[in-house]
Design brief:
single chain; 533 residues; alpha/beta; Metallo-beta-lactamase, Chain A; Rossmann fold; 3 domains; seven-stranded mixed beta sheet; 15 helices; 23 strands
Protein backbone atom coordinates (compact mmCIF):
# COMPACT_ATOMS: atom_id res chain seq x y z
CA UNK A 1 0.00 0.00 0.00
CA UNK A 2 1.37 3.37 -1.03
CA UNK A 3 0.20 6.97 -0.88
CA UNK A 4 1.45 9.73 -3.18
CA UNK A 5 0.70 13.43 -2.78
CA UNK A 6 0.08 15.12 -6.14
CA UNK A 7 -1.36 18.49 -5.09
CA UNK A 8 -2.13 20.85 -2.17
CA UNK A 9 1.09 19.83 -0.43
CA UNK A 10 2.54 22.97 1.21
CA UNK A 11 -0.19 24.81 -0.77
CA UNK A 12 -3.86 25.54 -0.17
CA UNK A 13 -5.44 24.45 -3.46
CA UNK A 14 -5.29 21.66 -6.03
CA UNK A 15 -5.99 18.71 -3.73
CA UNK A 16 -5.03 15.36 -5.29
CA UNK A 17 -3.80 12.17 -3.63
CA UNK A 18 -3.11 8.79 -5.26
CA UNK A 19 -3.32 5.48 -3.39
CA UNK A 20 -2.28 2.10 -4.72
CA UNK A 21 -3.55 -1.05 -3.00
CA UNK A 22 -3.28 -4.54 -4.43
CA UNK A 23 -3.76 -3.90 -8.16
CA UNK A 24 -6.10 -0.91 -7.69
CA UNK A 25 -5.31 2.76 -8.21
CA UNK A 26 -7.55 5.31 -6.54
CA UNK A 27 -7.64 9.10 -6.32
CA UNK A 28 -8.93 11.12 -3.40
CA UNK A 29 -9.96 14.46 -4.95
CA UNK A 30 -8.53 15.89 -8.15
CA UNK A 31 -8.78 19.64 -7.85
CA UNK A 32 -7.79 22.73 -9.77
CA UNK A 33 -5.04 25.02 -8.54
CA UNK A 34 -6.21 28.56 -7.81
CA UNK A 35 -4.19 31.65 -7.01
CA UNK A 36 -0.41 31.79 -6.71
CA UNK A 37 1.38 28.51 -7.49
CA UNK A 38 4.25 27.93 -5.05
CA UNK A 39 5.24 24.32 -5.81
CA UNK A 40 4.57 22.44 -9.03
CA UNK A 41 1.87 19.81 -8.66
CA UNK A 42 3.08 16.32 -9.39
CA UNK A 43 2.05 14.89 -12.77
CA UNK A 44 -0.40 12.02 -12.61
CA UNK A 45 1.96 9.01 -12.66
CA UNK A 46 -0.61 6.70 -14.27
CA UNK A 47 -2.83 7.01 -17.33
CA UNK A 48 -6.34 8.30 -16.49
CA UNK A 49 -7.79 5.11 -18.00
CA UNK A 50 -5.85 3.06 -15.42
CA UNK A 51 -7.45 4.80 -12.42
CA UNK A 52 -10.12 2.55 -10.94
CA UNK A 53 -11.99 4.88 -8.55
CA UNK A 54 -12.18 8.49 -7.42
CA UNK A 55 -13.36 9.44 -3.93
CA UNK A 56 -14.44 13.08 -3.72
CA UNK A 57 -14.66 15.05 -0.45
CA UNK A 58 -16.75 17.98 -1.73
CA UNK A 59 -17.69 20.08 -4.73
CA UNK A 60 -15.36 23.08 -4.41
CA UNK A 61 -13.29 23.52 -7.56
CA UNK A 62 -9.95 23.14 -5.77
CA UNK A 63 -11.05 19.58 -4.92
CA UNK A 64 -13.18 18.58 -7.93
CA UNK A 65 -12.18 20.92 -10.73
CA UNK A 66 -9.88 18.66 -12.77
CA UNK A 67 -11.98 15.48 -12.77
CA UNK A 68 -13.59 16.36 -16.15
CA UNK A 69 -10.09 16.53 -17.64
CA UNK A 70 -9.48 12.96 -16.45
CA UNK A 71 -12.70 11.89 -18.17
CA UNK A 72 -11.65 13.73 -21.32
CA UNK A 73 -8.37 11.79 -21.27
CA UNK A 74 -9.85 8.35 -20.71
CA UNK A 75 -11.01 7.88 -17.12
CA UNK A 76 -14.18 5.78 -17.01
CA UNK A 77 -14.21 4.45 -13.46
CA UNK A 78 -16.64 5.29 -10.65
CA UNK A 79 -16.69 8.55 -8.66
CA UNK A 80 -17.90 8.05 -5.08
CA UNK A 81 -19.18 11.04 -3.14
CA UNK A 82 -22.34 12.23 -1.33
CA UNK A 83 -25.68 12.95 -3.01
CA UNK A 84 -25.40 16.71 -2.40
CA UNK A 85 -21.86 16.87 -3.76
CA UNK A 86 -22.98 15.13 -6.95
CA UNK A 87 -25.70 17.75 -7.48
CA UNK A 88 -23.38 20.69 -6.75
CA UNK A 89 -20.62 19.27 -8.98
CA UNK A 90 -22.93 19.27 -11.96
CA UNK A 91 -23.58 23.02 -11.79
CA UNK A 92 -20.11 24.07 -10.59
CA UNK A 93 -18.18 22.03 -13.13
CA UNK A 94 -20.47 23.07 -15.99
CA UNK A 95 -19.77 26.67 -14.98
CA UNK A 96 -16.03 25.94 -14.88
CA UNK A 97 -16.23 24.33 -18.33
CA UNK A 98 -18.04 27.41 -19.67
CA UNK A 99 -15.13 29.56 -18.46
CA UNK A 100 -12.62 27.19 -20.13
CA UNK A 101 -14.50 27.33 -23.44
CA UNK A 102 -14.91 31.10 -23.29
CA UNK A 103 -11.17 31.60 -22.74
CA UNK A 104 -10.33 29.14 -25.53
CA UNK A 105 -12.61 30.99 -27.95
CA UNK A 106 -10.86 34.27 -27.15
CA UNK A 107 -7.37 32.78 -27.45
CA UNK A 108 -8.16 31.09 -30.74
CA UNK A 109 -9.41 34.29 -32.36
CA UNK A 110 -6.04 35.79 -31.51
CA UNK A 111 -4.16 32.66 -32.65
CA UNK A 112 -5.80 32.75 -36.08
CA UNK A 113 -4.58 36.31 -36.64
CA UNK A 114 -1.04 35.52 -35.50
CA UNK A 115 -0.75 32.06 -37.04
CA UNK A 116 -0.21 30.41 -33.65
CA UNK A 117 -1.44 26.91 -32.80
CA UNK A 118 -5.03 26.49 -31.72
CA UNK A 119 -5.64 26.52 -27.96
CA UNK A 120 -7.67 23.63 -26.56
CA UNK A 121 -9.81 24.20 -23.44
CA UNK A 122 -8.85 22.21 -20.35
CA UNK A 123 -12.26 20.56 -20.71
CA UNK A 124 -15.68 21.32 -22.13
CA UNK A 125 -19.28 21.08 -21.02
CA UNK A 126 -19.53 17.86 -23.03
CA UNK A 127 -16.74 16.40 -20.88
CA UNK A 128 -18.68 17.35 -17.73
CA UNK A 129 -21.86 15.73 -19.02
CA UNK A 130 -19.86 12.60 -19.91
CA UNK A 131 -18.57 12.59 -16.32
CA UNK A 132 -21.96 12.80 -14.55
CA UNK A 133 -23.07 9.14 -15.09
CA UNK A 134 -19.85 8.01 -13.38
CA UNK A 135 -21.01 9.35 -10.00
CA UNK A 136 -22.04 6.83 -7.35
CA UNK A 137 -23.71 8.94 -4.64
CA UNK A 138 -23.50 7.72 -1.06
CA UNK A 139 -25.12 8.45 2.31
CA UNK A 140 -23.24 9.54 5.42
CA UNK A 141 -22.09 6.94 7.97
CA UNK A 142 -22.71 3.83 5.87
CA UNK A 143 -19.99 1.38 4.89
CA UNK A 144 -19.74 0.78 1.13
CA UNK A 145 -17.70 -2.17 -0.11
CA UNK A 146 -16.13 -1.03 -3.37
CA UNK A 147 -14.13 -4.17 -4.12
CA UNK A 148 -12.32 -6.94 -2.23
CA UNK A 149 -9.57 -4.61 -1.00
CA UNK A 150 -11.41 -1.27 -0.58
CA UNK A 151 -14.38 -0.07 1.47
CA UNK A 152 -15.39 3.52 2.17
CA UNK A 153 -17.44 5.56 4.63
CA UNK A 154 -18.32 9.27 4.35
CA UNK A 155 -18.74 11.37 7.51
CA UNK A 156 -20.04 14.95 7.63
CA UNK A 157 -17.19 17.48 7.38
CA UNK A 158 -19.48 20.49 8.02
CA UNK A 159 -17.76 22.67 5.42
CA UNK A 160 -20.23 22.80 2.50
CA UNK A 161 -23.53 21.11 1.75
CA UNK A 162 -22.58 17.45 1.24
CA UNK A 163 -18.92 17.88 2.25
CA UNK A 164 -17.33 14.80 3.76
CA UNK A 165 -14.32 13.36 5.43
CA UNK A 166 -13.52 10.04 3.77
CA UNK A 167 -12.62 6.89 5.69
CA UNK A 168 -11.00 4.29 3.43
CA UNK A 169 -10.40 0.76 4.68
CA UNK A 170 -7.69 -0.89 2.58
CA UNK A 171 -6.62 -4.54 2.60
CA UNK A 172 -3.44 -5.93 1.06
CA UNK A 173 -1.81 -9.32 1.69
CA UNK A 174 -3.98 -9.83 4.75
CA UNK A 175 -3.04 -6.45 6.28
CA UNK A 176 -5.82 -3.92 6.88
CA UNK A 177 -5.33 -0.14 7.19
CA UNK A 178 -7.88 2.62 7.75
CA UNK A 179 -6.82 5.85 6.02
CA UNK A 180 -8.86 8.95 6.86
CA UNK A 181 -8.94 12.06 4.65
CA UNK A 182 -10.30 15.09 6.47
CA UNK A 183 -11.26 17.04 3.34
CA UNK A 184 -11.98 20.63 4.42
CA UNK A 185 -13.16 20.56 8.03
CA UNK A 186 -15.86 23.16 8.67
CA UNK A 187 -16.35 25.82 11.31
CA UNK A 188 -19.03 25.33 13.99
CA UNK A 189 -22.46 26.96 14.48
CA UNK A 190 -22.92 27.96 10.84
CA UNK A 191 -26.26 28.42 9.09
CA UNK A 192 -27.89 25.52 7.23
CA UNK A 193 -25.30 22.77 7.74
CA UNK A 194 -24.31 20.67 10.73
CA UNK A 195 -21.11 20.97 12.73
CA UNK A 196 -18.26 18.70 11.60
CA UNK A 197 -18.65 15.10 12.70
CA UNK A 198 -15.62 13.91 14.66
CA UNK A 199 -14.03 10.68 13.48
CA UNK A 200 -13.64 7.72 15.82
CA UNK A 201 -10.90 5.60 14.33
CA UNK A 202 -8.05 5.71 11.82
CA UNK A 203 -4.59 4.24 11.40
CA UNK A 204 -3.40 7.04 9.07
CA UNK A 205 -4.83 10.55 8.71
CA UNK A 206 -4.41 13.14 5.96
CA UNK A 207 -5.61 16.46 7.40
CA UNK A 208 -6.01 19.96 5.98
CA UNK A 209 -4.40 22.98 7.67
CA UNK A 210 -5.99 26.04 6.01
CA UNK A 211 -6.36 27.75 9.40
CA UNK A 212 -3.76 25.62 11.16
CA UNK A 213 -2.04 28.64 12.69
CA UNK A 214 -5.09 30.77 13.61
CA UNK A 215 -8.02 30.92 16.00
CA UNK A 216 -11.42 32.36 15.10
CA UNK A 217 -12.07 33.67 18.61
CA UNK A 218 -15.47 33.82 20.25
CA UNK A 219 -18.34 33.25 17.83
CA UNK A 220 -19.82 36.65 16.88
CA UNK A 221 -23.53 37.38 16.65
CA UNK A 222 -24.01 37.24 12.87
CA UNK A 223 -27.56 38.60 13.01
CA UNK A 224 -26.62 41.66 15.06
CA UNK A 225 -23.64 42.44 12.84
CA UNK A 226 -25.63 42.17 9.63
CA UNK A 227 -28.67 44.05 11.00
CA UNK A 228 -26.52 47.00 12.07
CA UNK A 229 -24.83 47.26 8.67
CA UNK A 230 -28.11 47.04 6.73
CA UNK A 231 -29.91 49.54 8.97
CA UNK A 232 -27.30 52.31 8.80
CA UNK A 233 -26.84 51.86 5.03
CA UNK A 234 -30.56 51.99 4.28
CA UNK A 235 -30.94 55.01 6.57
CA UNK A 236 -28.36 56.77 4.37
CA UNK A 237 -30.34 55.78 1.28
CA UNK A 238 -27.68 53.40 -0.03
CA UNK A 239 -27.30 49.81 -1.18
CA UNK A 240 -25.53 46.99 0.66
CA UNK A 241 -23.33 45.23 -1.91
CA UNK A 242 -22.08 41.82 -0.79
CA UNK A 243 -19.37 40.10 -2.89
CA UNK A 244 -20.31 36.49 -2.23
CA UNK A 245 -19.13 33.04 -3.26
CA UNK A 246 -21.93 31.57 -5.35
CA UNK A 247 -22.12 28.21 -3.59
CA UNK A 248 -22.28 28.05 0.18
CA UNK A 249 -21.77 31.62 1.36
CA UNK A 250 -24.59 33.12 -0.73
CA UNK A 251 -27.07 30.63 0.74
CA UNK A 252 -25.80 31.27 4.28
CA UNK A 253 -26.36 35.00 3.83
CA UNK A 254 -29.90 34.38 2.53
CA UNK A 255 -30.56 32.30 5.64
CA UNK A 256 -29.49 35.21 7.88
CA UNK A 257 -31.42 37.81 5.86
CA UNK A 258 -34.58 35.67 6.05
CA UNK A 259 -34.28 35.68 9.84
CA UNK A 260 -33.74 39.46 9.91
CA UNK A 261 -36.82 39.98 7.74
CA UNK A 262 -38.91 37.51 9.71
CA UNK A 263 -38.06 39.21 13.03
CA UNK A 264 -38.61 42.69 11.53
CA UNK A 265 -35.22 43.87 12.78
CA UNK A 266 -34.79 46.56 10.07
CA UNK A 267 -36.85 49.61 10.96
CA UNK A 268 -38.55 51.99 8.47
CA UNK A 269 -37.55 49.95 5.43
CA UNK A 270 -40.27 47.31 5.29
CA UNK A 271 -40.07 44.63 2.61
CA UNK A 272 -36.66 45.80 1.38
CA UNK A 273 -35.54 44.04 -1.83
CA UNK A 274 -32.73 41.50 -1.96
CA UNK A 275 -31.11 40.55 -5.27
CA UNK A 276 -29.01 37.48 -6.02
CA UNK A 277 -27.12 38.44 -9.17
CA UNK A 278 -25.15 35.38 -10.25
CA UNK A 279 -26.54 32.64 -12.51
CA UNK A 280 -24.38 30.06 -10.71
CA UNK A 281 -25.61 31.24 -7.29
CA UNK A 282 -29.22 31.16 -8.48
CA UNK A 283 -28.87 27.56 -9.66
CA UNK A 284 -27.04 26.55 -6.47
CA UNK A 285 -29.79 28.13 -4.37
CA UNK A 286 -32.24 25.83 -6.14
CA UNK A 287 -30.09 22.84 -5.15
CA UNK A 288 -30.25 23.94 -1.50
CA UNK A 289 -34.03 23.91 -1.76
CA UNK A 290 -34.26 20.32 -2.96
CA UNK A 291 -34.97 17.26 -0.84
CA UNK A 292 -31.53 16.92 0.74
CA UNK A 293 -32.66 16.73 4.35
CA UNK A 294 -29.82 14.49 5.54
CA UNK A 295 -27.36 17.34 4.91
CA UNK A 296 -29.11 20.11 6.90
CA UNK A 297 -28.75 20.98 10.58
CA UNK A 298 -31.53 20.58 13.15
CA UNK A 299 -32.63 24.23 13.03
CA UNK A 300 -33.01 24.10 9.25
CA UNK A 301 -34.93 20.83 9.43
CA UNK A 302 -37.32 22.34 11.99
CA UNK A 303 -38.02 25.20 9.58
CA UNK A 304 -38.66 22.80 6.72
CA UNK A 305 -40.98 20.72 8.93
CA UNK A 306 -42.94 23.93 9.61
CA UNK A 307 -43.31 24.58 5.89
CA UNK A 308 -40.73 27.39 5.87
CA UNK A 309 -38.09 27.58 3.15
CA UNK A 310 -34.98 28.67 5.11
CA UNK A 311 -33.44 30.70 2.27
CA UNK A 312 -36.52 32.24 0.63
CA UNK A 313 -38.52 35.28 1.74
CA UNK A 314 -40.70 38.09 0.32
CA UNK A 315 -39.00 40.37 -2.22
CA UNK A 316 -36.13 38.00 -2.93
CA UNK A 317 -35.21 38.54 -6.59
CA UNK A 318 -33.08 36.19 -8.69
CA UNK A 319 -31.20 37.83 -11.56
CA UNK A 320 -30.58 35.65 -14.60
CA UNK A 321 -30.16 37.86 -17.68
CA UNK A 322 -27.92 40.87 -18.20
CA UNK A 323 -31.05 43.03 -18.39
CA UNK A 324 -32.02 41.80 -14.91
CA UNK A 325 -28.55 42.73 -13.70
CA UNK A 326 -28.66 46.22 -15.23
CA UNK A 327 -32.07 46.93 -13.67
CA UNK A 328 -30.68 46.43 -10.17
CA UNK A 329 -28.61 49.62 -10.27
CA UNK A 330 -31.23 51.65 -12.16
CA UNK A 331 -33.71 51.11 -9.30
CA UNK A 332 -33.21 53.87 -6.67
CA UNK A 333 -34.72 51.91 -3.74
CA UNK A 334 -32.14 50.82 -1.12
CA UNK A 335 -31.47 47.12 -1.47
CA UNK A 336 -29.10 44.25 -0.75
CA UNK A 337 -27.12 42.92 -3.73
CA UNK A 338 -25.39 39.55 -3.42
CA UNK A 339 -23.15 38.87 -6.41
CA UNK A 340 -20.15 36.74 -7.40
CA UNK A 341 -17.23 36.54 -7.35
CA UNK A 342 -16.48 36.65 -3.65
CA UNK A 343 -13.05 38.24 -4.09
CA UNK A 344 -14.25 40.73 -6.77
CA UNK A 345 -11.86 39.36 -9.38
CA UNK A 346 -14.49 38.63 -12.03
CA UNK A 347 -18.19 38.40 -12.69
CA UNK A 348 -21.13 40.73 -12.19
CA UNK A 349 -19.93 42.01 -8.82
CA UNK A 350 -17.49 44.30 -10.63
CA UNK A 351 -20.40 46.10 -12.32
CA UNK A 352 -22.11 46.61 -8.96
CA UNK A 353 -18.90 47.99 -7.48
CA UNK A 354 -18.62 50.42 -10.39
CA UNK A 355 -22.14 51.72 -9.68
CA UNK A 356 -21.92 51.80 -5.88
CA UNK A 357 -18.33 52.27 -4.67
CA UNK A 358 -18.29 56.02 -5.38
CA UNK A 359 -21.53 56.59 -3.44
CA UNK A 360 -20.94 57.58 0.20
CA UNK A 361 -24.36 56.26 1.20
CA UNK A 362 -23.56 52.68 0.10
CA UNK A 363 -21.74 49.82 1.85
CA UNK A 364 -19.61 47.04 0.40
CA UNK A 365 -19.72 44.15 2.87
CA UNK A 366 -17.16 41.34 2.71
CA UNK A 367 -18.24 38.00 4.17
CA UNK A 368 -15.41 35.71 3.08
CA UNK A 369 -11.66 35.33 2.94
CA UNK A 370 -9.86 37.68 0.52
CA UNK A 371 -6.62 36.37 -0.96
CA UNK A 372 -3.63 38.69 -1.07
CA UNK A 373 -3.53 40.79 -4.23
CA UNK A 374 -7.22 40.47 -5.10
CA UNK A 375 -9.48 43.47 -5.58
CA UNK A 376 -11.39 42.48 -2.45
CA UNK A 377 -8.19 42.54 -0.39
CA UNK A 378 -7.26 45.97 -1.77
CA UNK A 379 -10.63 47.39 -0.74
CA UNK A 380 -10.35 45.95 2.76
CA UNK A 381 -6.82 47.34 3.03
CA UNK A 382 -8.16 50.85 2.41
CA UNK A 383 -7.64 51.60 -1.29
CA UNK A 384 -8.76 55.16 -2.04
CA UNK A 385 -9.57 54.35 -5.67
CA UNK A 386 -9.61 51.34 -7.96
CA UNK A 387 -9.73 50.61 -11.67
CA UNK A 388 -12.85 48.98 -13.10
CA UNK A 389 -13.38 48.49 -16.83
CA UNK A 390 -10.62 50.98 -17.59
CA UNK A 391 -12.21 53.66 -15.41
CA UNK A 392 -10.94 55.04 -12.10
CA UNK A 393 -13.59 54.67 -9.39
CA UNK A 394 -13.28 56.52 -6.08
CA UNK A 395 -13.85 54.42 -2.97
CA UNK A 396 -16.31 56.57 -1.02
CA UNK A 397 -18.64 53.79 0.16
CA UNK A 398 -18.30 52.25 3.60
CA UNK A 399 -16.14 49.11 3.46
CA UNK A 400 -17.29 46.60 6.08
CA UNK A 401 -16.39 43.04 6.98
CA UNK A 402 -18.39 40.43 8.91
CA UNK A 403 -16.26 38.77 11.55
CA UNK A 404 -16.09 35.09 12.31
CA UNK A 405 -18.03 33.67 9.37
CA UNK A 406 -15.21 31.47 8.04
CA UNK A 407 -16.11 28.12 6.51
CA UNK A 408 -12.98 26.41 7.87
CA UNK A 409 -12.14 24.97 11.29
CA UNK A 410 -9.43 26.87 13.13
CA UNK A 411 -6.26 25.43 14.72
CA UNK A 412 -7.83 24.19 17.95
CA UNK A 413 -10.87 22.76 16.15
CA UNK A 414 -8.55 20.74 13.91
CA UNK A 415 -6.60 19.50 16.93
CA UNK A 416 -9.86 18.53 18.66
CA UNK A 417 -11.00 16.71 15.53
CA UNK A 418 -7.78 14.67 15.52
CA UNK A 419 -7.77 14.13 19.28
CA UNK A 420 -11.14 12.35 19.11
CA UNK A 421 -9.58 9.43 17.22
CA UNK A 422 -8.92 6.48 19.54
CA UNK A 423 -6.53 4.78 19.65
CA UNK A 424 -4.19 7.46 18.32
CA UNK A 425 -3.32 7.27 14.60
CA UNK A 426 0.04 5.80 13.72
CA UNK A 427 0.81 8.71 11.37
CA UNK A 428 -0.63 12.07 10.36
CA UNK A 429 0.11 13.82 7.06
CA UNK A 430 -0.66 17.56 6.90
CA UNK A 431 -1.63 19.19 3.60
CA UNK A 432 -3.94 21.87 2.16
CA UNK A 433 -2.32 24.83 3.92
CA UNK A 434 0.12 27.63 3.25
CA UNK A 435 3.77 26.60 3.00
CA UNK A 436 4.92 27.36 6.54
CA UNK A 437 1.52 26.56 8.09
CA UNK A 438 1.70 22.92 6.96
CA UNK A 439 5.02 22.54 8.79
CA UNK A 440 3.94 24.40 11.92
CA UNK A 441 0.69 22.47 12.25
CA UNK A 442 2.50 19.13 11.76
CA UNK A 443 4.88 20.12 14.57
CA UNK A 444 1.91 21.07 16.75
CA UNK A 445 0.25 17.68 16.18
CA UNK A 446 3.47 15.92 17.21
CA UNK A 447 3.98 18.09 20.31
CA UNK A 448 0.40 18.48 21.57
CA UNK A 449 -1.10 15.12 20.63
CA UNK A 450 2.06 12.98 20.61
CA UNK A 451 1.27 11.63 17.13
CA UNK A 452 4.01 11.33 14.49
CA UNK A 453 3.20 13.96 11.87
CA UNK A 454 4.82 15.53 8.84
CA UNK A 455 3.94 17.79 5.95
CA UNK A 456 4.77 16.06 2.63
CA UNK A 457 5.68 17.85 -0.58
CA UNK A 458 4.10 17.28 -3.98
CA UNK A 459 5.18 13.98 -5.58
CA UNK A 460 6.26 12.46 -2.23
CA UNK A 461 5.47 8.74 -1.88
CA UNK A 462 5.07 6.90 1.45
CA UNK A 463 4.55 3.29 2.44
CA UNK A 464 1.18 3.24 4.24
CA UNK A 465 2.15 0.19 6.30
CA UNK A 466 5.36 1.59 7.78
CA UNK A 467 5.07 5.34 7.18
CA UNK A 468 8.47 5.23 5.49
CA UNK A 469 9.25 7.90 2.87
CA UNK A 470 9.94 6.13 -0.42
CA UNK A 471 10.30 9.10 -2.79
CA UNK A 472 11.22 12.61 -1.72
CA UNK A 473 8.79 15.33 -2.77
CA UNK A 474 9.55 18.36 -4.92
CA UNK A 475 10.80 21.20 -2.68
CA UNK A 476 11.75 23.59 -5.49
CA UNK A 477 9.68 26.76 -5.29
CA UNK A 478 8.31 27.96 -8.62
CA UNK A 479 8.07 31.61 -7.61
CA UNK A 480 11.70 31.67 -6.47
CA UNK A 481 12.93 31.07 -10.02
CA UNK A 482 10.36 33.08 -11.94
CA UNK A 483 12.21 35.62 -14.14
CA UNK A 484 11.28 39.24 -13.74
CA UNK A 485 9.11 40.51 -16.58
CA UNK A 486 10.41 43.30 -18.74
CA UNK A 487 8.51 46.57 -18.83
CA UNK A 488 7.37 45.76 -22.39
CA UNK A 489 6.00 42.38 -21.34
CA UNK A 490 4.23 43.94 -18.36
CA UNK A 491 2.50 46.51 -20.55
CA UNK A 492 1.56 43.84 -23.09
CA UNK A 493 0.03 41.75 -20.32
CA UNK A 494 -2.03 44.79 -19.39
CA UNK A 495 -3.26 44.86 -22.97
CA UNK A 496 -4.15 41.14 -22.81
CA UNK A 497 -6.06 41.73 -19.57
CA UNK A 498 -7.90 44.62 -21.19
CA UNK A 499 -8.95 42.31 -24.03
CA UNK A 500 -10.30 39.79 -21.51
CA UNK A 501 -12.20 42.58 -19.79
CA UNK A 502 -13.74 43.62 -23.12
CA UNK A 503 -14.97 40.07 -23.65
CA UNK A 504 -16.52 40.14 -20.17
CA UNK A 505 -18.31 43.41 -21.05
CA UNK A 506 -19.57 41.86 -24.29
CA UNK A 507 -20.91 38.86 -22.40
CA UNK A 508 -22.56 41.16 -19.85
CA UNK A 509 -24.51 42.80 -22.70
CA UNK A 510 -25.93 39.51 -23.96
CA UNK A 511 -29.68 39.97 -24.52
CA UNK A 512 -29.42 43.73 -25.03
CA UNK A 513 -31.31 45.70 -27.64
CA UNK A 514 -30.17 44.94 -31.21
CA UNK A 515 -29.66 48.64 -31.92
CA UNK A 516 -27.30 49.03 -28.95
CA UNK A 517 -25.42 45.82 -29.75
CA UNK A 518 -24.92 46.88 -33.37
CA UNK A 519 -23.51 50.23 -32.26
CA UNK A 520 -21.20 48.49 -29.78
CA UNK A 521 -19.98 46.11 -32.53
CA UNK A 522 -19.27 49.04 -34.88
CA UNK A 523 -17.20 50.76 -32.17
CA UNK A 524 -15.15 47.60 -31.55
CA UNK A 525 -14.59 47.05 -35.28
CA UNK A 526 -13.45 50.65 -35.70
CA UNK A 527 -10.97 50.20 -32.87
CA UNK A 528 -9.69 46.96 -34.42
CA UNK A 529 -9.27 48.64 -37.82
CA UNK A 530 -7.16 51.35 -36.21
CA UNK A 531 -4.78 48.93 -34.44
CA UNK A 532 -4.73 45.98 -36.90
CA UNK A 533 -1.42 46.90 -38.41
Amino acid sequence: MKIQFLGAAHEVTGSATLITVENKKILVDYGMEQGIDIYANGPLPVAPADIDFIFLTHAHIDHSGMIPKLVKNGFSGSIYTTFATEKLCRIMLLDSAHIQEFEAEWRNRKAKRSGDEEYEPVYTRDDVMKMMPLFKPCHYNLDYEICDCISVKFIDAGHLLGSASIELTLTESGEKKTVLFSGDVGNIDRPLIRDPQKPKTADVVVIESTYGDRLHGERPDYISQLTSIIQRTFDRGGNVVIPCFAVGRTQEMLYLIRQIKNDRLIKNHDNFPVWVDSPLAVEATGIYSEDLVEFFDRETLDLLDSGINPIHFPNLNLSITSDDSKFINSDPQPKIILSASGMCEAGRIRHHLKHNLWRRECTVLFVGYQSEGTLGAKLIDGAAEIKLFGETVAVNAEIAQMEGISGHADRDMLLGWLENISPKPQKVYVNHGQDTVCDSFASLVSEKLNIPAEAPYNEAVYDLSTGKLLIEGNRERITKFKPKESRANTVFRRLIDSGKRLLAVIEHNRGGANKDLAKFADQINALCDKWDR
